[in-house]
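Hi C.,

You asked whether I'd gotten around to modeling the 102-residue construct. I have! Everything is below, sequence then structure, no commentary in between.
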Amino acid sequence: MWEIQFEQGFVRDVRAVVRQHPQIRDELAVAVEVLSETGTLPEGYSLHELDNPGGNYNGHMDFHLSDGLVDVVVLCVMHKGRMVIRFVRMGTHEELFRGRLR
């Protein structure tokens, strides 16, 4: 079983995304539960590691919610040696990858 941790920025992001897309709340809860139990997600979530040279989130894992119907990306870091998954950010591609640096 993986330990789950939520950074403050992620908690703020979730509140903002859920206000716009309330249906995301349940899907996110399921994804977090599956990740905590297995350390992976079904194919439909497109879980993958980011490796964009010079990118802010290199080494983070990225997965998608709402089967692509809504642009919602979740960023997390998996610490395999300690079996901890730390949720870092959640938002649209524009907010996370092309917006202002934070």
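If it helps when you're writing up: The radius of gyration is 13 Å.

Thanks,
B.
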